[in-house]
Design goal:
about 550 residues, mainly alpha, 2 strands, Frigida, FRIGIDA-like protein, flowering
Length: about 550
């Protein structure tokens, strides 16, 4: 600012300098011996021009300085705002973490109170006279108090199996450390898999070494691998692998219900070494997996990541290599929690980029919401891009020469894509940003066209020839039929009436929620039907949830 002030002072003094120069010039002219060619007027105009040029340049510099100061102030304000947003997000994360901690403490306290209640309900003390007597007040606190060492009593039959009500066979199998029998029992009762899944963590308490039991159950994960003639993997193998994943998840559930000391007794260093050996054996086999073929539903990649998370050995493997496996399991419902357990939250922006570039925007949207990255990856833009690519992929190259079969496939794929987008919008509550009414109208239109084509096809099918009433079968062969007659003998009128619908096909409007089971809210809980658990197909169908088991 001092330099600017001095420059301004010098510029203002220009006029006085010009006046002094004029006086000197006049004095010089009065003493000249010869006539000067230059006139004072010309000199004065020259110096005034220089003065104006300097002033104009000075004002330009002042304006640039003010603009720079304004930009600096805006940048500082934006930086302060971003810092405040970061602090707010950190605080929100801390609040969520505190809530989870409080919930865990409450669950532990509830469990302790429950065990205290069980111990307080023991039969009254029997006296030497054979009569019932209540314990003294001095003994009551000792009976009702459970120390940390007494938590080992959870191994007793009264406490450890409290959560196993429907399938006590699970307890027997875990006690006997029978991993093969456990696999067979789960496979035989796959229709009730949801109930079994809830009871397995309690049944594992009966095992002498729950971690070793789960590791033994993984032995045939690759050993029994085989393929059918069409190149697809055997359904029994897929079911076995899903069972392996479920057992590891149930062990993780058991570990979360224990305190740190008890969990370290279950997952010992020896157990970790055994798990690491299995992981090292599985790792090379993952190199043959293809991102496009897995479609985000790879059991092999899921089992590998779950093994690292359950037994706490993720630190022994490279994070970059682990993050490259995440797109192969992006459709699994456990993906978000699994990535957090493995410490891959910071790698998720790169994972989402891979999903977007591979045309799997729906998975990208789900993960963006799960890791609060919706500002970096706009859900609406991703969904619109998915629909655009889906329409481009299903559009026939020559619309005029499209066969009915191809057109039906095109309509079916577009219908599936629309239902998937509608489901995702409703699941993440994006209706204000992306209205679903136009999409639902298009769904109704495609469904109506599909039903109309089906009705026309059914009506055009020839009616089958009915057998004779006497049950003998076809009549004698007729050879002297005139050329103008039909081959089949004439039947009585209305004997084969044309198939007619009793009522017209009704297509409710979008507001009637024409297909609630397809575009309703998603759930991430395991379906009771074991068919969803052992199925091996994958496609973006609206009848499935956003994540598979």
């Amino acid at each position: 600012m001092d330099n600017t002030h001095s420059v301004a002072t010098l510029i203002d003094s220009t006029t006085s300098k010009i006046q002094q120069l004029q006086k000197a010039f006049a004095e010089l002219e009065s003493h000249r011996a010869v006539t000067l060619n230059l006139k004072w007027k010309e000199l004065e105009e020259h110096f005034h021009g220089l003065e104006k040029s300097l002033k104009r340049r000075f004002h330009e510099l002042e304006d640039q300085e003010k603009e720079f100061e304004n930009r600096t102030i805006k940048a500082r304000d934006l930086l302060v705002k971003k810092e405040a947003d970061i602090v707010a997000k950190e605080q929100a994360s801390l609040d969520k973490l505190q809530e989870k901690r409080d919930a865990a403490v409450f669950a532990i306290a509830s469990a302790r109170d429950k065990h205290r209640k069980v111990s307080s309900d023991d039969p009254a003390v029997v006296t030497t006279e054979g009569q019932n007597a209540q314990p003294s007040t001095e003994e009551t606190p000792q009976e009702n108090t459970i120390s940390d060492g007494d938590l080992e009593e959870m191994k007793s039959p009264e406490n450890e199996h409290e959560g196993v009500k429907s399938y006590p066979q699970l307890v027997t199998l875990c006690k006997e450390m029978d991993s093969e029998g456990l696999h067979k029992f789960i496979s035989d009762n796959r229709k009730n898999l949801a109930a079994i899944r809830e009871e397995i963590p309690f049944a594992l308490r009966a095992a002498i070494n729950p971690a070793s039991l789960v590791l033994e159950s993984l032995e045939d994960f690759y050993r029994a691998e085989s393929t059918n003639t069409d190149g697809k993997k055997d359904s029994n193998l897929l079911g076995l692998r899903r069972t392996c994943i479920m057992l590891m998840e149930c062990l993780s559930t058991l570990l979360t219900s224990l305190d740190l000391a008890s969990a370290s007794e279950v997952i010992t260093e020896e157990v970790k070494e055994q798990a690491k050996e299995i992981a090292e054996e599985w790792k090379p086999k993952l190199d043959a997996l293809d991102l496009d073929d897995s479609n985000g539903n790879s059991l092999e990649a899921h089992a590998f990541l779950q093994l690292l998370a359950t037994f706490g050995i993720a630190s022994d493997f490279d994070e970059e290599e682990l993050s490259r496996l995440v797109p192969m399991v992006s459709r699994r419902r456990q993906t978000a929690d699994l990535c957090r357990s493995l410490g891959l939250s910071e790698k998720m922006p790169g994972v989402i980029e891979v999903l977007v570039n591979s045309g799997r925007q729906i998975d990208a949207v789900n993960l963006a919401f799960a890791f609060e990255l919706t500002q970096q990856f706009s859900p609406v833009a991703l969904l619109k891009s998915y629909l655009k690519e889906a329409r481009k992929a299903v559009s026939p190259s020559k619309p005029g020469n499209t066969s009915p079969t191809v057109q039906n496939e095109v309509n079916e794929r577009e219908l599936t894509a629309l239902k998937t987008v509608v489901k995702c919008i409703e699941e993440h509550k994006l209706e204000e940003q992306y209205p679903v009414d136009p999409l639902q109208k298009k769904v109704v239109q495609l469904e109506k066209a599909k039903a109309d084509k089906k009705r026309v096809t059914e009506a055009a099918k020839p009616q089958p020839k009915r057998p004779r009433a006497n049950g003998v079968g076809a009549g004698p062969r007729v050879t002297n039929i005139p050329a103008e007659k039909t081959f089949y003998p004439r039947v009585a009128e209305n004997r084969y009436p044309q198939y007619m619908y009793e009522r017209p096909y009704v297509y409710p409007g979008p507001n009637d929620n024409h297909c609630p089971s397809l575009i309703g809210s998603a759930t991430y809980s395991l379906s009771p039907a074991h068919g969803n658990y052992f199925a091996n197909g994958y496609q973006y169908q609206a009848v499935q949830t956003a994540y598979l088991h």
